[in-house]
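Support request, please re-run this one:
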Amino acid sequence: MRFRSLLIALILGALADARADDRPNFVFFITDDVSAEDLGCYGHPLVKTPNLDKLAAGGMRFTNACLTISSCSPSRCSLITGRYPHNTGAAELHTTLPPGQFLFPQSLRDAGYYTVLSGKHHMGPNADPAFEKISKGKGPGKEEDWVQILRDRPKDRPFFAWFASTDAHRAWQINDQAPIYDPAEVPVPPYLVDGPKTRQDLADYYHEVSRTDHFAGEIAAELKRQGIEGNTYFIYTGDNGRPFPRCKTRLYDSGILPPFIVSCPGKIEPAVTDSLVSINVDLAPTILELAGVARDPRMQGVSFGKVLEDPKATVRDAAFAEHNWHVNQAHERMVREGGWLYIRNAWPERQILCVESAPGIPSGDELWEAHDKGALNPDQRDIFLVPRPAEELYNVSKDTNQLRNIAADPQNAETLARLRKLLDRWTEETGDTVPENPTPDRQDAHGKKNPDFKYGEMPGAARDATAITKPGPIRLD
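Re-run finished. Output below.
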């Protein structure tokens, strides 16, 4: 009888090992401050991203995948928990994830996955238990130990690698791992000044975007060398948009729409999908589903596994995002639905500032210089508007840069009313609040530091939002 029990145990153990060997691996390459439109495969006319273009051509490229926030640490805390920033307790820049929050890589680790983080962390020590190995990374973009990590990993277990570059974050670091671009050839977005400082600023930024491409190629080559590219989901995205005025921290596409590419040869057919995805909250349930790990009820997103099987599938009808304190005070909320983008500003009397428009940022300097001369055109005045609109509405298919606010147009009254109700419902269900004692500006518009600065009340704190698990609207049927 004892022999029979031992035999059964050995057989079950062998079956468990076989299942483990068949489980997929994951490489999650998260860039720092990159907008979708700045990659070749998204149509940029200058930036060279051949490896990412190849990854996209052989996998799935998302055109409508947005973030829950366009701010570094809150975005990453939202990603690792699968929860909205105000529900994580770390909704503002440099606030660390509090204890007790769900961590999806921890679920993978508990299920036998080897989990590793290399590069930019920015979530605080309470995220550390999710990873068996943590590296600060190497090189100017923190990517240079990633291939070695893949080579040194345990070969008898599936793995999840959170590879976080500091490309393309200021200050720029130029080396021979990416092209150097000619400022004269750089296209300048209409909301920036077309001047020599801005052109050089963009050229240096594009260099770092291309350096992420270089390391994407290194990773892809290593997966192929190990013969595991067909069982490894390679995911490439960003934590927020490009670090330029009216981009990073903002809720326009330049801030909230990063590149999002998922590749796994043989499991994902080549396609471009317009299906709506909320990256920060939807990625965790998707990865857990693909890994065969149970969903945690604290996650607020929905798996987009069906989209990976069918690019025409729909898993959500509405996506939401927030703009909280990031050096300067802010409280904006956004809903994206059916080709429309609606933004509500709780403090329209305030000028919206960001570190990318502060003194010393070349593209910001040229905006301020032109502003002081009265030389800005309407498209370039956004960061100087006081007061601002309390509501903004854009048809994103017709206005790709969101420059024409049509909230006041009577023809859009029905759409505006619908989106207001959607945002109201999300606000109520997820416990979002406007702080009564908000975090003040850390510095003024000219970079002067506030000597009395300290953090104030977090959005959602008044309703104990960290304990709320309701997701708000997802499907609208």
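The chain is about 30% helix and 15% strand. Residues 1-20 have pLDDT under 50 and may be disordered.
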